[in-house]
Design a protein that fits this description.
mainly alpha, two-stranded antiparallel sheet
């Protein structure tokens, strides 16, 4: 095993927990679950879900232990940094690679020693005041040889390595993915009970989880590509789980093909970074090269733009988001897993994992505008607007996911790294609760998600589902003190435009996008809640509360939606701030290491929090009042028939644009694909008629002519002629011999004597 030593110029060392050498067992366990379910579940007559639940449960416990060890590791590193500073150590960024990129033979069972120089114990702010910074440990990388590439110069010689990278970001995702996946497994035992492909479903849930975990722990960009593609393949299989229905197959193909568009950018970007960083796939080496200036800013910009194409497709950013709402064709637990913990967060994770590439390439520090922040902001508003015109509850949540993914990308685009990662963390919890809550509602309404036709008044029948949905909605809308409030507030603060907040630049346009999204989120979720849970029941079923296997995961996620936000409260918050202030930031964001840029953290603002929250509450109140008045007018109505769209041509046009989803599907399917398919079909038909058929017909005609020629001249003329001639010759010879054979012995003797005489003469003459 090759273990990357994390630094070499050390005066203080912190031992690495041995468990970090074994984290590869987490994705391996889920991969084994996939194989066991496919090969043994039916033979052993064991229900497939038991393999998956036991495996993901064990992985969740392993992830928690890993997280606990990482927390201790961070604490030990910070303490050692303080001791080093007191001893008068020299301050400087920790070299996380060492002189030779840190590769050395190492026993896998032995802990890796972290060595570091005492960096960033304190830095000087612009005002000249000493500012304390948290010292983070370097990532712990363990690698083994994957394959020999034929002698090219890469880190580690001629070998391409595969391994695990353990740091705050990967540990956080380990916990999130395994926790959400565990709840989805339990939830699915009831939701897909009796499904015609029950075993297949749980097998691919395990493989989906394994693929995401493999991706999260990747230590090289080449390994990330493998995990990235595995996640895409699994999503294709699960979205199209009920493939007998054409819309489901179409949705699966749409997701698969749209992601292939972005994958071109992923491959090109990774190739650029491979050569720019000195022919290495190693993530830490690439990040350090980006931070140190070893890679030019122009090269990083090109690589970053290519990688953004991949992020746009995988994480549903405008304009490649169109596949994500259609992915609702899959089972609802799959939708929860895709939209909360896997697949769509892979793109955001890619930005976080290679953040120095984007931070330096896009010039985030000191900037006011860049491609990442703009794409994220546009996605926030564009996705949120589409949620207003949906009658399908799952599609409301799908467009909400598009909007919130835009929020995460916006945060990373303005330099608010921790805010983006923290929103990924909190969003996974409350969005999983919302999707599973939608599944619980559908379960009670004959598997319908139509809010207008089949729902309404369900709070009376489904109190557990209702209250958990309300809590998760409040978290999504950013209502304090729920989880989404803390992460959303950090993103807005990070834009750096609110007085007294600071930050990495003055990102006015992204800030405006963020504020608009805060209001829109509260508005469209208020609409969804009213249509689903308030008013009179409009369906024909007999709704009832779901069973424990559906409601217990909802309750756990609702609890998380309440308390998860407190993991990163400001240090200035009275009470909690002094004890756990910025705890998430200290565990997840690298600080004082050479593989991560120096980021300026914006200061929290109470006034901004009040304004943003008030804006959300006001937007929700407007929508609530709208439906309250409508209910008084018509108890079963869901929209005004004489509303603004019926009176204003501009409003009618805007509504039509939203209903048609900005006509992007028409652009892709009808115009681009349609026109390509049109002329390609015509060209193929012409080629078939004039070229292929011509070749075939010519070959047939020529073959027939050749056959006639062979028959007439070769078979009949030559072969039959030769046979007939030989017969005639034989007949003539026979007639001659018959004359000689008279039956007279004296005549035979005379002939023999004459022949002997001739033969003797020949011998005499010749000799």
């Amino acid at each position: 095993m090759i273990t990357q030593l994390l630094a070499t110029e050390a005066t203080h060392a912190v031992s690495t927990p041995a468990i970090f050498d074994w984290v590869w067992l987490i994705p391996a366990t889920m991969a084994a679950s996939f194989l066991f379910i496919l090969l043994l579940a039916k033979r052993l007559k064991i229900q497939a879900h038991w393999f998956g639940i036991v495996a993901v449960g064990a992985c969740f416990l392993f992830a928690l232990v890993t997280a606990a060890n990482w927390v201790g590791y961070v604490s030990d590193t910070a303490h050692a940094s303080e001791v080093a500073a007191e001893d008068g150590g020299e301050h400087g960024a920790t070299d996380c690679l060492g002189d030779d990129h840190g590769e050395a033979d190492h026993d896998a069972s032995a802990p890796t020693a972290l060595a570091y120089t005492e960096s960033a114990a304190e830095t000087t702010s612009e005002g000249g005041e000493s500012e304390e910074h948290h010292q983070s440990p370097c990532a712990v990388v363990n690698q083994v040889s994957w394959f020999d590439n034929g002698g090219a110069t890469v880190t580690g010689g001629a070998d391409i390595n595969i391994g695990t990278l353990v740091d705050g970001q990967s540990v956080m995702l380990l916990v999130v993915v395994t926790f959400i996946s565990l709840l989805v497994h339990v939830y699915s035992t009831d939701y897909v009970h009796g499904d015609r492909r029950y075993t297949h479903y749980f097998a691919f849930l395990s493989l989906f989880t394994a693929s995401m975990l493999f991706y999260v722990l990747s230590s090289s960009t080449l390994q990330m590509i493998v995990g990235w593609e595995l996640v895409g393949v699994c999503s294709f299989a699960l979205i199209g789980h009920w493939w007998e229905e054409q819309p489901n197959s179409d949705a699966a193909l749409k997701a698969f093909l749209t992601n292939r568009v972005g994958d071109i950018g992923l491959l090109v970007g990774m190739i650029i970074l491979y050569f720019a960083a000195g022919k290495t796939f190693d993530i830490s080496a690439i990040n350090q090269a980006a931070v140190s200036g070893a890679i030019s800013k122009d090269t990083l910009l090109v690589a970053g733009l290519c990688l953004m194409a991949a992020v746009m497709s995988k994480s549903g950013q405008f304009i490649l988001h169109t596949w994500l709402p259609d992915a609702m064709a899959g089972p609802t637990p799959v939708s929860a897993l895709i939209h909360a913990a896997t697949m769509v967060v892979a793109g955001v994770y890619l930005i976080g994992r290679l953040y120095p590439v984007f931070y330096v390439g896009f010039g985030i520090n000191g900037g006011a505008f860049n491609a990442m922040a703009f794409i994220g902001g546009l996605t926030c508003v564009g996705g949120g607007a589409l949620a207003f015109v949906q009658s399908d509850l799952k599609k409301v949540l799908a467009y909400s996911t598009v909007s919130q993914l835009g929020y995460m990308v916006l945060a990373l685009g303005v330099g608010a790294y921790t805010a983006g990662m923290f929103h990924l963390f909190t969003h996974a919890i409350f969005k999983a609760c919302l999707f599973l809550g939608a599944g619980s509602v559908s379960h009670a309404c004959h598997h319908s998600f139509d809010m207008k036709a089949d729902m309404g008044g369900l709070r009376k029948y489904m109190p557990k589902t209702f209250w958990t949905f309300i809590i998760a909605t409040g978290a999504l809308a950013g209502i304090p003190p729920l989880a989404g409030f803390w992460s959303k507030d950090e993103i807005l603060v990070g834009a750096g435009v609110w007085p007294g907040t600071g930050g990495n630049g003055d990102f006015y346009v992204p800030f405006i996008f963020g504020m608009i999204t805060a209001a829109m989120t509260a508005a469209y979720m208020t609409r969804a809640i009213w249509l689903t849970f308030f008013g009179d029941y409009r369906g024909h079923a007999h709704p009832h509360e779901s069973g424990n296997r559906l409601t217990v995961p909802l309750i756990l996620l609702a609890i998380g939606s309440v308390f998860a936000g407190f993991l990163n409260v400001p240090e200035t918050l009275p009470g909690l701030g002094s004890r756990i202030g910025l705890w998430f930031e200290h565990q997840v964001e690298p600080s004082g290491v050479a593989t991560f840029p120096t980021i300026e953290h914006a200061k929290p603002s109470l006034s901004l929090a009040i304004v943003a929250t008030s804006l959300a509450l006001f937007a929700g109140f407007i929508v609530w009042s709208y439906y309250k008045r409508l209910y008084r007018k018509d108890r079963l109505a869901t929209e005004y028939t004489d509303g603004l769209a019926s009176k204003s041509s501009m409003a009618r046009f805007g509504h039509r644009v939203l209903v048609n989803k900005y006509y992007l599907d028409h652009l892709y399917t009808g115009i681009i694909a349609g026109s390509v398919k049109g002329w390609m079909a015509q060209a193929a038909y012409w080629f078939n008629q004039h070229v292929l058929d011509g070749v075939v017909n010519t070959a047939g005609t020529g073959t027939a002519a050749l056959g006639r020629f062979v028959y007439k001249y070769i078979d009949q003329g030559a072969i039959d002629g030769a046979v007939n001639a030989s017969g005639v010759g034989a007949l003539g010879s026979g007639q001659m011999l018959r004359k000689i054979q008279s039956g007279k012995v004296r005549q035979y003797a005379a002939l023999m004597f004459g022949a002997a005489a001739v033969l003797a003469a020949v011998f005499i003459i010749a000799v």
